[in-house]
Design goal:
Blueprint: H1 3-17, E1 22-27, E2 39-44, H2 49-62, E3 66-69, E4 75-77, E5 82-88, E6 96-99, E7 102-106, H3 111-120, E8 123-124, H4 136-142, E9 145-146, E10 149-150, E11 155-161, E12 167-171, E13 177-178, E14 181-182, E15 189-196, E16 198-199, H5 202-219, H6 239-245, E17 252-253, E18 256-258, E19 266-268, H7 274-292, E20 301-303, H8 307-314
Parallel strand pairs: 2-5, 3-5, 4-20
Antiparallel strand pairs: 1-2, 6-7, 7-15, 8-16, 9-10, 11-12, 11-15, 13-14, 17-18, 18-19
Helix pairs in contact: 1-2
């Protein structure tokens, strides 16, 4: 039995066993901020960590491929979809609490919820993340940040699970946090984290949050589907500046466009396909490389693309 059939069979078995938790052939465009992407064999939304563990162990026994999806804000899913079981943790890892200046947030909590929770309880240190899309789990895996900091600056403890269903806990300084990466978290499923905050005031935090949101609204194309920043910042440079200088602003392929408002955003301007967006990403990379000899590295994650397709965007060609 090939991998595709294994996943299909496993999905059917899970749908029988957990009918309220599993949706077969679910279009992933319904779960991504780009609003593109074909179907997954199944979407699994466990109700508890114990249920997540049980389902993961079953998938491991069946040798079925799985993928963890947060809010779908930093991914581009292939038009043909994925032969995988896609998990969402918005039900089983949605807790948020604090004791003194220590905040615990489940991986399924939206970053926006965490920022507002901290503001409500006069806890400063993450206000710069206002307006960052996605979940805490996704933010941990890519060490999300903006303006003056990154989430890794605040993390002191991480709860995780292996893809075999084993629990583990890791200190924040062992996660391998760096610019838009967490080297030691990529092979693990995030369950939640503890963050060390500092005391602030509601007025200061509200003002800071509103300021960051205003900056985003002024500079980013928030009216269109996107993944946020497409490319990482090259050392000593800004991707958006290079893209603009290379003459890419407003460039279109199909329904995808390099945003006229912010060149490091490729937007779903008019019923784009994933292939439209992918081809535009590659064209921007080539144009920037031809002019500056800098190959822009992707910040967006590709899901369901072939090795051959990924090679096109991961190195100059």
């Amino acid at each position: 039995m090939d991998k595709k059939e294994i996943v299909k069979q496993t999905a059917a078995l899970l749908a029988e066993r957990f009918p309220m938790r599993v949706r077969l052939n679910e279009p992933l465009k319904n779960h991504t901020t780009y609003k593109v992407g074909g179907p997954a064999a199944a979407i699994c939304i466990p109700a508890s960590r114990a249920e997540l563990q049980e389902i993961l162990k079953f998938c491991h026994q069946q040798q079925a491929a799985v993928y963890l999806l947060g809010s779908g804000s930093n991914i581009l899913v292939h038009d043909q979809g994925v032969d995988m079981l896609v998990f969402r943790l918005n039900k089983c890892c949605s807790e948020i609490s604090h004791t003194d200046n220590l905040v615990y947030a489940g991986a399924g909590v939206l970053v926006a919820e965490l920022v507002k929770y901290c503001e409500k309880h006069n806890l400063a240190g993450l206000d710069f993340m206002a307006g960052i899309p996605g979940t805490v789990g996704g933010a941990l895996r890519m060490n999300a940040g903006a303006f003056v900091g990154e989430i890794g600056d605040r993390v002191i403890l991480i709860d995780a699970m292996t893809y075999q269903g084993e629990y583990l806990t890791m200190k924040g300084d062992k996660a391998g946090f760096g610019y838009r990466r967490a080297n030691h978290l990529q092979d693990k499923i995030m369950l939640g984290c503890q963050l060390r905050m500092i005391q602030g005031t509601r007025e200061e935090l509200e003002s800071a949050r509103e300021g960051y949101l205003a900056q985003r609204a002024a500079k980013q194309p928030l009216d269109y589907g996107s993944c946020g920043s497409v490319f990482k910042r090259p050392p000593g440079q800004y991707a958006g500046t290079l893209i603009e200088k290379a003459g890419c602003k407003g460039l279109r392929i199909g329904g995808a466009m390099v945003s006229p408002k912010h060149a490091n955003f490729i937007i779903n301007y008019e019923n784009a396909t994933a292939q439209d967006i992918f081809q535009l990403i590659h064209k921007v990379q080539r144009m920037v490389f031809q002019q500056f000899n800098i190959w822009l590295e992707l910040e967006v994650k590709l899901v369901g693309f072939s090795d051959e397709e990924e090679k096109k965007v991961f190195k100059p060609n």
